[in-house]
Amino acid sequence: MNNRERFLRTLQFQPVDHPPVYPEAVWSTTLARWRQEGLPENVSPQEYFGLEPLPLVYAGLNTGPFPPFEEKVLHQEGHQEVRIDHYGRTIRDYNDHTTMPEWLDFPVKSPDELKNLLAEKFHPDLLAERWPSDWLARVKKWQQDGPGRDYILFLDGGCYYGILRNLCGVETASYLFYDAADLVNELFERVNFFCLEGINRARQAGLNIDYLGFGEDIAFKTGPLVSPDIFQKFFFPRYRKVVATAVESGISLLVYDSDGCLLPLLDDLLKSGIDCFWPCEVAAGMDPLLLRKKLGCRLKMLGGIDKRALPGGKEAIKKEIDRKIPVVREGGYIPRIDHSVSSDISLENYTFYLNYLREILEK
Q1: In CATH, what is the architecture of 3-66+119-362?
Q2: Which residue ranges does the chain devote to CATH 3.20.20.210?
Q3: 300 φ, ψ to 5°?
Q4: Residues 266-314: pLDDT tens digits?
Q5: Are strands 90-94 and 102-105 parallel, antiparallel or unpaired?
Q6: At what angle do helices 111-121 and 181-204 cross, to 10 degrees?
Q7: C-alpha span between 179 and 174 (Å, rounded)
Q8: Which candidate, 188, 283, 315, 182, places its Cα nearest to that of 241?
Q9: Residue 13: in which H helix or E strand, if any?
């Protein structure tokens, strides 16, 4: 049994030899720290820890701004650089360590600018150009690899809020739901159209897609960034439509990616057909124990290991993993750090975490 089989079977409450343990996202500054603490140069964490990989391979088309904005560095300020990214945002970021960037400017600051962007970057007539030029060659390889492949094939169900926020920032996005509702609806409708095209073309090619993903980041620590009413008006219909098409195409795993507290939206998300959540951020109240108690086995989860426990040492790590054992035993849950491996986690503590997690899961 490989990690792909473990991943899919665990999240479908089916028996496995053990839930999968596979590489987590490690900050560049964490990696630099670990090099100083004994991780050999030119050896990846995956190699060092002896982890079986689980590559995620996207099988669809570009569903975001297209063509993307030209990326370029505007200027450097010591260890910082100011640049324009592929969303057209002007950001300030460090070039020598990992942190959240500072967003200085966005391409959309008004309804008129959103209207212009719809014509320039989300034109439905450019559908063919959104596909990779070698997509048919990729399809041939995916078909040759067959159902025993060791990687996950996934498609995009839509990054609706994610795209809007990336284009205009949280504050302007919040106003646009009220000041330019028709334009926001049109943006979401076009994104939905691109996602449906991805599902339909993959079905026509006979691809066996493992899951449909939604990359939203629609919440912060204490709640969602949109109200339940806004969610019902702008998001729920698109989610229902794309989920129904996916299920008709044989895709049964629907994975929703958002940090923060989703609790006020969970019932509606489940009604839309989305039933798997990542990363289940414990600091935001999304503890897998509480979620499973509240929603039962309707809910599938990845993540949920509180990253704040890892800097605390072996006893804190052991206690955090032990708390999750009942949910692991029930199935439908893959324990992982509830986002990424930050630089306050030492090599020693991460090694203990990984070894203890593997010991528990392999039992």
Answers
A1: Alpha-Beta Barrel (3.20)
A2: 3-66+119-362
A3: -110, 145
A4: 999 999 999 999 999 999 999 999 999 999 999 999 999 999 999 999 9
A5: antiparallel
A6: 20
A7: 9
A8: 188
A9: none
